[in-house]
């Protein structure tokens, strides 16, 4: 493939986003040593508006729920200011505009959620009426389903900010974070001496679609970049997250739909499980399916049809 002289990588500026950008850049440099890789840090709406809940940010900005973390990166991508946008895949809307695509993802980290608290023992050890911080409706509804006595409070900010809010104040007894981010930033397996980290089994606490995966977004008409990102992508991860995101598309689920879904590969099989809470409240619907890894969208469709 004919090489370009430079690849411009767009990223948010949080510590975790920069870690993800750095991982992508290292792989690009290893695979294409003749190409200069340049980083462009772009502040998104979601980064600027940490004063209100995510749902309110989307409403005030006139954008789709998860788009508050991708809108400005896509503007730069469309304008040709960057060639590649690096995302936490779980923050990307399920359906992209036609002129954008995600042809690859890096190898996935852990998919699970973690409860970070001020005392040992995890979820079962939280006292009656404990206050748990999260900005995710999926996490909030599962927490309230497992422990109806818990008080859920909105919590915004990057990973270090959220941990500091927990350790330095009395507003929260615990908070919820993604295992992948905690591992990438070095909080796991080592624990802060003032905090305790309990990673929740995905069979008990269902993760978000795409959780733990780094998505690589490009312009749909940029064939050269498509070859580039596919070269550094991880096939098994892309297969799994594509199925998970297809399930969300069929469900027509956005950031504010309480849905957990995860997948695993076993030999030639793709196994998928989902837990979906009605937005109006009530017990969740569950579904589990197994199908061929050669047909991930068909397996996602089976999961959707089993659920409904």
Characteristics:
single chain; 308 residues; alpha/beta; D-Maltodextrin-Binding Protein, domain 2; Double Stranded RNA Binding Domain; 3 domains; 10 helices; 13 strands
Description:
This protein is α/β, with parallel strands linked by helices. Helix content is 33%, strand content 24%. It contains ten helices and 13 strands. The chain is globular, with a radius of gyration of 19 Å.
Layout of helices and strands, plus pairs?
Layout: E1 6-11, H1 15-31, E2 36-41, H2 45-48, H3 54-61, H4 71-78, E3 84-88, E4 100-105, E5 113-117, E6 131-133, H5 137-146, E7 151-153, H6 159-168, E8 174-178, H7 179-184, E9 196-200, E10 214-219, H8 223-232, H9 235-251, E11 259-266, E12 269-276, E13 285-292, H10 296-307
Parallel strand pairs: 1-2, 1-3, 6-7, 6-8
Antiparallel strand pairs: 3-10, 4-10, 5-8, 5-9, 11-12, 12-13
Helix pairs in contact: 1-8, 9-10
Q: What Rg, in angstroms, do the CA atoms define?
A: 19 Å
The CATH homologous superfamily of the largest domain: Periplasmic binding protein-like II
The string of secondary-structure elements, in order, is EHEHHHEEEEHEHEHEEHHEEEH
SS summary, helix count: 10
Spatial order of the strands forming the largest sheet: 2-1-3-10-4
Q: List unreliable stretches of 5+ residues.
A: 57-64
Architecture of the largest domain, CATH level 2?
3-Layer(aba) Sandwich
Measured distance between first and last alpha carbons: 46 Å
Shape: globular
The largest β sheet comes out as: 5 strands, mixed
């Amino acid at each position: 493939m004919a090489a370009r002289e430079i690849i411009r990588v767009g990223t948010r500026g949080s510590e975790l986003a920069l870690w993800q950008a750095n991982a992508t850049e290292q792989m690009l440099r290893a695979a294409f040593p003749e190409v200069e890789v340049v980083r462009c840090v772009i502040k998104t709406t979601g980064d600027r508006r940490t004063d209100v809940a995510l749902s309110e940010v989307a409403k005030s900005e006139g954008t789709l729920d998860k788009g508050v973390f991708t809108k400005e990166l896509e503007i730069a991508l469309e304008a040709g200011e960057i060639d590649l946008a690096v995302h936490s895949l779980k923050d990307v809307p399920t359906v992209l505009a036609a002129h954008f695509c995600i042809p690859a993802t890096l190898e996935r980290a852990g998919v699970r959620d973690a409860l970070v608290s001020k005392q040992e023992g995890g979820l079962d050890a939280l006292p009656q009426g404990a206050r748990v911080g999260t900005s995710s409706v999926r996490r909030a509804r599962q927490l309230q389903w497992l422990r109806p006595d818990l008080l859920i409070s909105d919590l915004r900010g990057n990973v270090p900010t959220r941990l500091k809010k927990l350790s330095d104040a009395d507003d929260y007894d615990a908070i919820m974070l993604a295992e992948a981010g905690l591992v990438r930033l070095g909080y796991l397996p080592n624990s802060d001496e003032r905090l305790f980290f309990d990673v929740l089994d995905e069979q008990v606490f269902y993760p978000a679609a795409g959780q733990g995966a780094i998505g690589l977004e490009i312009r749909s008409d940029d064939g050269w970049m498509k070859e580039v990102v596919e070269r550094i992508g991880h096939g098994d991860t892309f297969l799994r997250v594509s199925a998970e995101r297809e399930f969300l598309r069929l469900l027509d689920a956005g950031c504010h739909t309480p849905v957990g879904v995860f997948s695993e590969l076993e030999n030639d099989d793709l196994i998928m499980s989902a837990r979906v809470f009605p937005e109006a409240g009530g017990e969740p619907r569950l579904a589990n399916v197994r199908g061929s890894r050669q047909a991930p969208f068909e397996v996602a469709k089976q999961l959707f049809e089993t659920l409904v």
